Amino acid sequence: MARLAAIDGVAEARVDATGRHFLVVVAPGAGDAEVERRAIEALGGRAARLDDAAARAQLAARPRGDPWFSAAETLALCYVEARVLAARAGSAAAAAAGLGADDEARVAEVARVALFAVMERVHAEGGRPSSGWFAGAWPGIAREVAAACRTFLPPAVADAVASALARQHAAC
């Protein structure tokens, strides 16, 4: 989103909740064709302009509350997603390793810190062309979280946490 918003001639750039549809408002006086070309390029060349009827259909519910997010709002959503993923990681680790509530919360907090750092780095780099990047990043994130957990969990328990974390997004 940041790459779209930074294009000269873009007055507004937003994305729907799926990340598949983008709204690009061309600034007055800017050339539609040039902005469209640059927007498609910024999206990795895999995007295409919707015809008018399809565009209207996608935007029809926006006035009723269908959210379309700016670059800043997408980062906020990443923070929300990181918190949810961290809670799931803590829960999965607790179930696999027999952790109590306090250790579950500690694992979740370690995961939250790691996930926030990853999300912030990805946004600082300009984002990714799809959400598929996360599946490839997860093993490294899981190793980082597991390594941090080894500082407060016994070795056998930390191993069970590491296994649970590794399996968490194996099917992504």
From the structure above, extract its key features.
172 residues, mainly alpha, 7 helices, 3 strands
Strand order of the largest sheet: 2-1-3
C-alpha geometry: elongated
Strand content: 5-15%
Number of helices: 7
The parts where pLDDT drops under 50 for at least 5 residues are: none
Instruction: Report the span from N to C terminus.
Output: 23 Å
| Rg measurement, Å | 20 Å
What is the quaternary state of this protein?
Answer: single chain
Number of strands: 3
Class computed from helices, strands and strand pairing: mainly alpha
- Share in helix: 55-70%
Mean pLDDT comes to: 91
Topology order in helix (H) and strand (E) letters? HEEHHEHHHH
Largest sheet: 3 strands, antiparallel
| Domain module tally | 2
Fold and architecture overview:
This protein is mainly alpha-helical. 61% of the residues lie in helices and 8% in strands. It has 7 helices and 3 strands. The protein is elongated and about 65 Å long. The model has no long low-confidence stretch (mean pLDDT 91).
Topology (elements, then pairings):
Layout: H1 2-5, E1 10-16, E2 22-26, H2 32-42, H3 52-59, E3 68-69, H4 71-97, H5 101-124, H6 133-149, H7 155-168
Antiparallel strand pairs: 1-2, 1-3
Question: In a nutshell, what does this entry contain?
Answer:
This protein is mainly α and 172 residues long.
